[in-house]
Amino acid sequence: MGWMIYGANGYTGRLVAERAIDRGERPVLAGRDAEQIAAFAAPRGLEHRTFDLRDPAAVDAGLRGIDIVAHCAGPFSSTSAPMVDACLRAGVHYVDITGEIDVFESVFARHEEACRAGVVLLPGAGFDVVPTDCLAAMVAAALPEATQLDLAFQAGGGISRGTLKSALEGAAVGGRARIDGEIRTVPVGWRRREIPFPSGPRRATSLPWGDVSTAFRSTGIPNITTFAHLPGLDHAGQRWSGLGQRLLALGPVQYVGKAAITALVSGPGPRRRAASWSEIFAEATAPDGRTRSAALVTPNTYDFTADSVLRVISGLQTGEVTAGAHTPSTAFGADFVRRLHGTKVIEPAR
């Protein structure tokens, strides 16, 4: 099956491409910048294509002969919908690495279209949200009566331009949580708790993460809060105000912020990635107070993402997944995360 990495000139897209080449894969590399795509693909002897997602006819032409797209060009709030449209028109499976709640909701809303087209739509095939989604499914299966789910992570090793730009957009929206089955806007840092990460307890603060959308689809649990332990986040959440959020929502502020990110951020290098790891924690709670929890240790978020995307592509190539819109765990099961290199699930003794 022919498959494509769109956004192969971006930080994460390049990592996915490099990992694919190391494994003997020959993906088609694509993106909007002809010079950058050619400079990366040509020395490696890979086919490359250039097209702009704002031009539907060009996208249709760019997808000819392709069976699966690994969409790595964010922010996905702008790029996901036109690529999903094209994949549904062409009968091409769609995979992306978004962590954006509204993008997940938009893709899941097209489940019936995808079923009719015989297409798999699988957003969030990277660190956003494979480890959290699979761990959520594990603890939900262990406690089917659960009505509350807390998910938390801490990650080291730096951050890429695309991730920062998505985070900048998300900060303008404010906090989000799943409450009584509905996604609701809440204050940033509306909840704080201590998380028993494998490396030791850490104070974590709630923030909007993709599982506010995906974990509900995967588990059916109606109350979901996502947390992170990030240096300075706890105090920043306390100081955050509606005024600050409104300022970030202004177009000029977003433009200047994204331009600064483009100019100043390049993403972590191989040594920094190799020296860092991430930890995930999930806890499901039933109305009577019973809980089930589990934790996960993974490699650096970007190395994890590259591995995960390729495992997803492999699963689609072998026909593991039925048509429709999926989360990682509804596509491959909660144990999918156990297949990934360097990942360890830690479940407490009963």
TrEMBL record:
It comes from Saccharopolyspora taberi. InterPro entries: NAD(P)-bd_dom_sf (IPR036291), Sacchrp_dh_NADP-bd (IPR005097). This is Trans-acting enoyl reductase family protein. It holds the Pfam family Sacchrp_dh_NADP. Residues 4-121 form the Saccharopine dehydrogenase NADP binding domain. PANTHER family: SACCHAROPINE DEHYDROGENASE.
